[in-house]
Amino acid sequence: MISYTLITGASGGIGEQIALLSAQRGKHLILVARNKQKLEQVASNLRDSYNVFVHCLDYDLSHPNSATEIYSLVQNNMWNVDVLINNAGYGLNGLFSSHSAEEENTMLQCNINSLVALCSLFSQPMIQRGKGGILNIASTAAYTGIPYLASYAASKAFVKNFSVALHAELKQFGVTVSCCCPGGTATNFFDRAKVDRSSMAVPLQSPEIVAFTALEGLESKKALTISGWYNAIMVFLTRILPYQINVYVSEQIFKPKNK
Ligand SMILES: NC(=O)c1ccc[n+]([C@@H]2O[C@H](COP(=O)([O-])OP(=O)(O)OC[C@H]3O[C@@H](n4cnc5c(N)ncnc54)[C@H](OP(=O)(O)O)[C@@H]3O)[C@@H](O)[C@H]2O)c1
After folding, report:
1. Which of 15, 63, 144, 236 has the greatest CB tally within 10 Å of its CB?
2. Which domain holds residue 66?
């Protein structure tokens, strides 16, 4: 039976690079994102270059039923997913009170609820087989409250804490759960979140390097990785400084400049 790596958010940025590295390692892929055209472009390059099977599923993970629909489709096709990579996610920058409750919930559905549902569904067959891997992409934003990016940062704190707990639970069944926290990375993230990338305190990493670090963390069965030494220092500082300082510094970085 052919085994697949399922990657969400594979139409660009970090997810596309994870797909590329996985294909280079000979993995067959199931790619998920909303933009079918971009997914097909990524898939066609990978099929041509690395001779792997690549299936494209255009789903919006902000829809509450998307995870169960993806799982049913995978089961019906008898695709055996031995690695699940939850990478899809996005941020909403600006005053929390300027976003509607629906905008916030739509983001949290994608960043948290669909991720949890995919972990829940796909971990069952992994547990039965006694092997498998789950990689969740959080963020260094997980380590502090961030004004003007409040629920995004909180959603990533959820992903990080959920993942390290799941790592401890699932290792007894032969399933590895790993979480990678990237810092600022040069992708479309900033445009979608409407964050000014020039205001970031440290240099942006390339999505290629983040993808490599994340996969390396999964392969070496690490519960948690932080991509980039300067991001690791930033995280260390957030852990030793009083939270008021972390929140103040974050506010200076993420406060929209026209305020
Ligand atoms: N870039 C950074 O500075 C940074 C830092 C820390 C953590 N991260 C995290 O890294 C992950 C990848 O982000 P990125 O930087 O690569 O951003 P990106 O270039 O904007 O890519 C995001 C990917 O997620 C997909 N996606 C977004 N919303 C979706 C939805 N509702 N349903 C299905 N797919 C969706 C996008 O595809 P479609 O648009 O085709 O749906 C795209 O493939 C995210 O979880 C992000 O929070 C990024």
Report:
1. 15
2. 3-254
Q: What DSSP character marks residue 202?
A: S
Q: Is the CB of 13 under 6 A from ligand 1?
A: yes
Residue 185: partners with Cβ closer than 8 Å, 6 or more residues away: 13, 14, 204, 205, 206, 207, 210, 227
160: CB partners within 8 A, 6+ apart: 138, 142, 143, 179, 181, 224
Question: Each residue's pLDDT tens digit in the chain (259 positions)?
Answer: 899 999 999 999 999 999 999 999 999 999 999 999 999 999 999 999 999 999 999 999 999 999 999 999 999 999 999 999 999 999 999 999 999 999 999 999 999 999 999 999 999 999 999 999 999 999 999 999 999 999 999 999 999 999 999 999 999 999 999 999 999 999 999 999 988 888 777 789 999 999 999 999 999 999 999 999 999 999 999 999 999 999 999 999 999 876 4
Which tokens go with 160?
């990080």
Question: Do residues 20 and 95 touch, judged by C-beta distance below 8 A?
Answer: no
Residue 124, in any domain of the structure: yes
Q: Which of 31, 34, 205, 230 most suits a substitution to test ligand 1, by most atoms within 8 Å of the C-beta?
A: 34
> How many structural domains are present in the chain?
1
Cβ-contact 151, 108 below 8 angstroms: yes
Return the residue whose CA atom lies nearest to atom 1 of ligand 1: 185
The ligand 1 atom nearest the CA atom of 35 = 40
User: Is residue 259, in this structure, part of any structural domain at all?
Assistant: no
Please name the residue whose Cα sits nearest to atom 42 of ligand 1. Answer: 9
